[in-house]
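User: Thanks for the earlier help. One more: Hedgehog acyltransferase like, b isoform X2. Can you show the sequence and predicted structure together?

Assistant: Of course, both are below.
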Amino acid sequence: MVYGLLAVWTSMGWTYITLILSHCILLYSISLVKIRWLCFVTGLCTLATFKCEPFVSWQAGFVEGDFELRHVLFYGGCGFTIMRCMSFALENCERKDGNYNILELLKYNFYLPFFYFGPIMTFDKFYVQANKSDLTRKERELWNISLQGLIHLGVVIVVDVLFHFMYILTIPTDMKLLKHLSDWALVGLAYFNLVYDWVKAAVMFGVINTVSKLDHLDPPRPPKCITMLYVFAETHFDRGINDWLCKYVYDYLGGKHENVVEELVATLCTFGVTILWLGPCEVVLFWAFFNCFGLNFELWTAKLFSMEPFASFEMAMSEAMSRRIRAIFNTFNFWCIVLFNVLALNSLDFAKLVAKRLLLKGFPITTIIVMFMTYCLIQVIKERERRQALIDDPDPLPPAPPPNAATSPTGAPAAPAAAQPVADPSKEKAE
């Protein structure tokens, strides 16, 4: 904690430390009341002061100096501080006996590897890991950490080369140039924009996680590769923020995520907090709307196909056929995810141009070829996930007992029961 305070003071000045401490003290004081909604509203209002004028300009004046990363460090440190303080306050509300010490909050917030850029560990996980007494390491753990550090260093160099020589982020801003590109080049550019952004996030969080593992912490993993995302429920570029939102908003309001109305309320509130976190603007609002719709549409589709006669149709199919049909739907899902996130990373005009070329102007040749290649990719991903599921849980699921076995008379032979559809264990594991 002391080292983190000194590092932030050295880089940003004592007035910035004062600003951060004032937010910590405010949310700590509110947490002592132990009213969950009050802690949440206070945290969101505090977060809004970094997104709305004149509060932004006034608080930005607390930063000393005029160096290149000034605004990045200012908004990163303040934004993550509010989210960490909210996590602390909400966990303190759940604590039955007493309150957490304010020193625990300061130690949690000023842990230097996580301070400016995250990822966010919820306070309950950080508290347990930071206070554990057993600090022994597994065999070859230090070797694996060192190897990960070298890999991330190499990827940093590759990302820097791509950024300077391949113009992945610059080309989408030139609409005149984009109109002269072929359909294939445009679709590939949209895909590689997401891949590039994922690589940046994976490298940044990978480096931070490597350092934190030296302190015996188990931080949130880097985001899942964009190539393997074919469902909206797994789409995120910051696993820490995703875990935070799921724990305190999405799962808290959505329950088991079986009721359509509860799911709609949970997703609306989740994306509402996300909009405030990212900063309300036209692009963010469009991005949130489409992703919120995609997440709910997945639930609606799953509920529809779990009803009769669709459920009986799927149980009559083989595992391979069921996976093929699901892969067809996931193919369209994949490109919806790509287009919706390209909208946030680049611009609305670029996303509209890619959608027009892929679905309208490129139809049927470009559309069919791209969708077929995506379909094959998703089949490979599903097979990989199926094998990994069997490795993680090698024991097959036991079949359900016949429903009429216990009620048949003991003296007379039991009548043959009607054939019941038995769930295929491998199919359940795969899906």
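User: Great, one quick takeaway?

Assistant: The longest helix spans residues 183-213.
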